Request: fold
Amino acid sequence: MILPRDRRTLGPSMDSGSLRVILLATEASLIYGRPDNCDGTYQSNCDSEREYKNISQILESFGQQDLLSFMQSNWKDVDGSDESFWEHEWGKHGTCISTLEPSCYTDYTPQEEVVDFFTRTVNLYKGLDTYTFLKNAGIVPSNSKSYTLKSVQAALSGAPGRNGTSAFVDCDDSGAINQVFYYYNVRGSVQTGEFVAADVDGGSKTSCPKNVKYMPKKNGTQPRTSSTGSSARPTATLEGSCRSNEKWSSRNKARSFAY
Reply:
């Protein structure tokens, strides 16, 4: 998990915080993830000198063509400005992960933290196949059918790797699922730490009514699947500290917003 710099470690083996990743079968979705302060707030734009404007070139210079190719197919901006979207996510969130600060590396190579940021984000995304989690429980996009919120929550908490932990289900004003937030505790650093599924941090676990809609893509096609079977095209971002224990929340979302 990744916490802001002023968070204190809560225990000897695990800290408290959250990572978000985003869902959906509506429109284009995006990869997005960031840690918070365990109260819903988060830091942003923490180092203007490292707000790089050449993400593709950086990844290519480190031989990460496969990673870049995956991002070009899955980490999309609805306005077509993928590169500027990645730059925004790195500058706003990546620069606030303290374990990604140059001083946290041994034999630091300039900009290697950018590779670690996008590699971790994409790997987390690949493990959060919200569409299949719901499909396996008989919950599929529909223009006419509604589902109980409890059935959606049960499908997500019972998904592989979630170990019965809760996810935050967010709905729009019409009662349609808009986002899903997954939470993790992280043992270790962003780069090499173990992400352990965790419950939603305090408060409500949803913004949805008791019965929810799960709308299909507006063009009527079924969601595409990635190599991991995911229909969601999340965007992800991270934040944290040099200490070895932190926490994250991950969200799956339907449209490409600039967070």
Helices lie at 55-61, 65-74, 82-92, 112-126, 130-135, 149-157. Residues 1-30, 220-249, 251-259 have pLDDT under 50 and may be disordered.
